[in-house]
Amino acid sequence: MNNLEALKTRKKTGLSRLNRNSRIFKTIIQAVKEKKGEHIISLDLRQIPEAVADFFIICQANNPNQLKAIADNVEDQVKKVCAETPYKHEGRQAEQWILIDFVNIVMHVMLPEPRKFYQLEELWSDAVIMGHD
Known about the structure:
Blueprint: H1 3-8, H2 23-34, E1 38-44, E2 55-60, H3 64-82, E3 88-90, E4 97-101, E5 105-110, H4 112-118, H5 120-123, E6 128-131
Helix pairs in contact: 2-3
């Protein structure tokens, strides 16, 4: 799938909508837990017209090594279980915050300091928040 086709799947139609029971959603949560990610939450953005995805999943790592391990495991497990690769990922060099974009789900793996500073949960406070610890 080329980049333009992947972006077309971002349209908010009833047929393409994911939910928390979707295989990719469950796989991401499980992959984070396998690497001991903490403070795991999901933000349901489906009712927010300006949202760039259906869900954000946010978790916290304690150090740069764990940050990378969580991100790697998420990508590996989603590829293995769901046969999907990310559209894009960012932040691997900075080792503070890794973003993995699966088009309809965007995964944020963050160290404590950037998570506290950027407060994504507050930024998207209109979203329905669910904990997954």
